[in-house]
Design goal:
The structure is a homodimer.
Chain A lengths: L2 E5 L3 H12 L3 E6 L2 H7 L5 E4 L5 H6 L7 E4 L5 H13 L4 E5 L3 H9 L4 E3 L1 H14 L3 E6 L4 E7 L9 H4 L1 H5 L2 E7 L2 E4 L12 E7 H8 L1
Parallel strand pairs in A: 1-2, 1-4, 2-3, 4-5, 5-6
Antiparallel strand pairs in A: 7-8, 8-11, 9-10, 9-11
The complex binds adenosine-5'-triphosphate (ATP) (2 copies).
Chain lengths: 214, 214
């Protein structure tokens, strides 16, 4: 298992820390706010109160021994920036940070932060994409215009086999799997018959997956 | 193309509206803050200033003619809740909203909002999941424990064919596609040779995809 230090335990930081803890990793979770630390101490094994812009405090907490640091301080950009710089000085190899604006992101990337997340923007784009294609359940971009599309089987395909749907020839889509209630059929054969309510997992262009639904 | 009304144009709401506009849909974007409306009028075709808790204002803006509404008011939960209730009264069939906490989400779901997004939490879990599996690029959950994993080809598989990698027998993973720089090879044959830097798109359990990397 790996080790991570997570600084700033707002909604974003706390859910990063909790997800890593749930996977069994060692996570040192830090925040300047004693009440928040107190509140999270029931679900996070190692959580401590400190000011991440204070080098001595970081050293005392042993932050220098971590390979990956996640800085999730949003509202006070200067503190977040300073915390990233101090982690770098302590030798933390990989730093991921959150920001509130694209400009803040650019600055963090320029000082050497490996990856910067804009949580609200990312979630907004994902929702916009899901609303765009009505029957779309979820989407994973694999290359510029091709992705894995999880979609509700459109009425036109219900009660037909995959061969009869002619997905690849007519729409350029490759069926990867079909989910029916709690069962998942991976790499279904051409004779697999699609039923109402099936969720199709296909690879291809989002626009083509949408076209099938129309 | 479809029509959407988006209320509340913070980072989340503005990116939902922009994503839908980029796909060519008709979006009416509304916010109480005149400065924000002014600022966004350069990128959103239909944006107007109004208080979404005011029924007359919503009627005048023609909100009752929309099928889908997205309410993105976070800090002032009471306003967000009220806006959802008014959209329902106006006959908007499908309402999606954002919230800041799980309790707020529960309340919105109970009054009939179809889907509630917690942007920071969603982005935090996605980052935690990506950090969990080092060589993981992205992940799309398809069923409880199975998903589509985009991963950097682990050293153990480099210069071997897919057949030699024996992914399915040894790890229960099905190779869907391989991305090599800007090229995507969908449903690669068993004799496809994996090179350094290739990104593998496989279907299976996240833990098994991680096991390959170790
Ligand atoms: N210098 C610092 N050292 C450590 N923690 C800090 C420091 N400054 C702020 N924090 C903590 O960072 C956390 C996140 O701060 P932020 O301003 O982004 O709040 P937030 O909006 O609640 O975050 P989120 O959007 O993730 O919920 C807060 O819990 C805050 O106490
Ligand atoms: N009654 C209302 N009618 C219309 N818009 C409103 C109303 N109340 C608040 N808003 C707008 O909703 C938007 C989002 O509000 P929120 O309090 O969630 O801010 P935010 O934190 O900037 O959002 P985000 O996290 O998406 O950036 C703001 O632009 C605000 O002006």
């Amino acid at each position: 298992k790996k080790e991570f230090v997570v600084i700033g335990l707002g909604r974003f930081g706390a859910s990063v820390a909790q997800t890593l803890v749930d996977y069994g990793h060692n996570v040192l979770a830090l925040d300047i706010d004693a009440t928040r630390v107190q509140h999270l101490s029931t679900t996070l094994p190692h959580v401590a109160q400190l000011d991440a812009t204070n080098m001595d405090a970081l050293l005392q907490a042993g932050v220098d021994s971590f390979e990956t640091g996640v800085v999730c301080i949003g509202t006070d950009f200067e503190s977040g920036l300073l915390a990233c710089v101090l982690l770098q000085r302590l030798g933390v190899k990989r730093i991921v940070a959150k920001a509130r604006t694209r400009t803040q992101r650019d600055i963090l990337l320029r000082i050497g932060v490996e990856e910067v997340i804009l949580p609200e923007h990312e979630a907004g784009v994902r929702l916009g994409r899901r609303l765009e294609a009505g029957n779309l359940v979820d989407y994973l971009e694999v290359s510029d215009d091709i992705g894995v599309v999880e979609m509700v089987a459109p009425p036109a395909l219900v009660n037909h086999t995959l061969a009869e749907s002619d997905m690849r020839q007519r729409f350029g889509l490759t069926a990867m799997a079909v989910r029916r209630n709690d069962e998942l059929f991976v790499s279904p054969s051409a004779s697999f018959r699609i039923l109402e309510g099936d969720i199709l997992v296909v690879m291809g262009r989002l626009e083509d997956a949408e076209r099938i639904g129309e």
